[in-house]
């Protein structure tokens, strides 16, 4: 009975919470975009850099620093995923444009934003796991590649559809 | 003071009347083109609800016949609800090819998990009905509602995480099913664990709670179908002329991007 009631409460609260948190049809804002330093992220995920730190530092220091690096990487991924969500809202609006080129660019951007959020969904738990076991190797390179591709697609979309200052903010 | 029986009858008649009103709204707004299965579901609940009210007052209908009517009415409505939830999920996911395969995998996986949970619950927590038929009915309804709750949780979470666009009416339909399935699951879970002896005050409370939840659901659906539909908003709705020059900041960013590519 308890399990059934927990599931019932979840089923009722999830849509209500989503609507309360995200609001109804909110307009995407440039202020929601957070800058992501791709180079710094790649450096954090570089296996050679990790290997260098492992050799240069005592094991306890390496584990502490590696945890800090992974925490920073998680923050970068969260920012990139959050930016992807904002870009999806813009692309969704551009999808209804009368210009076929804008629609095409918007569709590509949507695909890549979904892909990035899928990678982020997979990468974040792995990075947390790597924080618990700092010796474990994990490189979410696909997140960086996907983010880079997405920024290019925003620029492409900006040529056909008003995207404000978003491409510059990325 | 209003008796429990009278309160239940008022809620019951109100929800049947409002179901008929919802059907009229769907037909007049031609919403059946956009939501054909939901229209069929509404038509079924309106017709079956009216038939059950009539059966309740016709002297030659026995208790067993009335129970069979309730079981058929709820069975068909549940099957239609499953079809609607699946259709809503498939339609949303199919609009985004990248999310489509992940979505269908997640849908199947969630259905299996919740089906296994519901079967385990049916095994370990059987219902205590006055007859094997009513016990089986309570268990089947609990299983169906649990599956619907699981699928709706996935529908909301999946769409929310991937920011898949959702028309306000489709959200309203899903929210209505969320209210209906969750309240029905909770009522069924409590009902299945309480030993039944005779139709007493407690049974009136369950009947009142069930119909009240349905009334709330119909009101939610009516609200979403009577309110103007929300559309996706753009950052700036000013159209750009095909021959017009591009703003300077776009060209600057374009140049920066090319530089980055050439490096």
How many DSSP E strands of chain A? 0
**Which pair of protein chains has the largest interface, and what are the residue counts?**
A-B, 55 and 59 residues
Share of helix among residues of chain A?
A: over 70%
Indicate the mean pLDDT of chain B: 81
Give the quaternary arrangement of the chains. Answer: heterodimer
Q: Helix/strand-derived class of chain A? A: mainly alpha
Describe the structure.
The complex is a heterodimer of chains A (170) and B (263). Chain A is mainly α and 170 residues long. Helix content of chain A is 77%, strand content 0%. Chain A contains seven helices and no strands. In chain A, helix 5 packs antiparallel against helix 6. The radius of gyration of chain A is 19 Å and the shape is flat. The model of chain A has no long low-confidence stretch (mean pLDDT 76). Chain B has eight helices and no strands. Chain B is mainly alpha-helical. The radius of gyration of chain B is 24 Å and the shape is globular. In chain B, helix 4 (97-124) runs antiparallel to helix 5 (132-161). Residues 232-263 of chain B have low confidence and may be disordered.
């Amino acid at each position: 009975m308890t399990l059934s009631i927990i599931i019932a409460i979840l089923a009722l609260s999830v849509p209500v919470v989503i609507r309360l948190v995200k609001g109804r049809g909110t307009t995407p804002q440039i202020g929601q975009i957070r800058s992501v330093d791709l180079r710094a992220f790649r450096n954090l995920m570089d296996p050679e850099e990790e290997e260098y730190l492992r050799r240069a530092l005592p094991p306890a220091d390496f584990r502490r620093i590696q945890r800090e690096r992974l925490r920073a990487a998680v923050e970068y991924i969260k920012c990139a995923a959050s930016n992807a969500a904002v870009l999806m809202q813009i692309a969704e609006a551009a999808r209804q444009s009368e210009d076929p080129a804008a629609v095409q660019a918007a569709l590509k951007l949507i695909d890549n934003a979904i892909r990035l959020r899928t990678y982020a969904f997979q990468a974040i738990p792995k990075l947390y796991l790597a924080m618990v076991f700092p010796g474990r190797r994990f490189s979410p390179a696909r997140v960086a590649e996907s983010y880079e591709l997405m920024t290019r697609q925003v620029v492409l979309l900006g040529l056909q559809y008003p995207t404000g200052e978003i491409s510059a903010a990325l | 003071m209003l008796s429990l029986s009278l309160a239940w009858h008022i809620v019951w008649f109100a929800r049947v009347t409002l179901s008929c009103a919802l059907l009229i709204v769907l037909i007049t707004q031609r919403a059946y083109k956009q939501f054909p299965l939901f229209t069929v579901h509404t038509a079924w609940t309106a017709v079956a609800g009216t038939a059950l009210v009539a059966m309740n007052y016709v002297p030659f209908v026995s208790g067993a016949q009335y129970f069979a009517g309730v079981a058929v009415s709820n069975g068909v409505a549940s099957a239609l609800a499953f079809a609607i939830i699946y259709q809503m999920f498939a339609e949303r996911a199919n609009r985004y090819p990248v999310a489509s395969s992940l979505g269908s995998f997640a849908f199947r996986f969630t259905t299996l998990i919740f089906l296994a949970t519901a079967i385990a619950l049916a095994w370990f927590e059987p219902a205590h009905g006055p007859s094997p038929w009513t016990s089986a009915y309570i268990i089947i309804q609990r299983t169906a509602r649990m599956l619907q709750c699981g699928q709706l949780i996935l529908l909301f979470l999946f769409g929310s995480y991937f920011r898949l666009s959702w028309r306000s009416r489709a959200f309203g339909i899903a929210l209505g099913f969320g209210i209906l399935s969750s309240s029905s699951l909770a009522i069924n879970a409590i009902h299945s664990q309480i030993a039944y002896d005779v139709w007493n005050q407690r049974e009136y409370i369950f009947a009142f709670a069930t119909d009240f939840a349905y009334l709330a659901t119909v009101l939610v659906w009516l609200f979403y179908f009577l309110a103007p539909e929300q559309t996706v908003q753009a950052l700036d709705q000013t159209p750009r002329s095909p021959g017009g020059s591009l703003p300077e900041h776009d060209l600057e960013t374009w140049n920066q991007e090319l530089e980055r590519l050439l490096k």
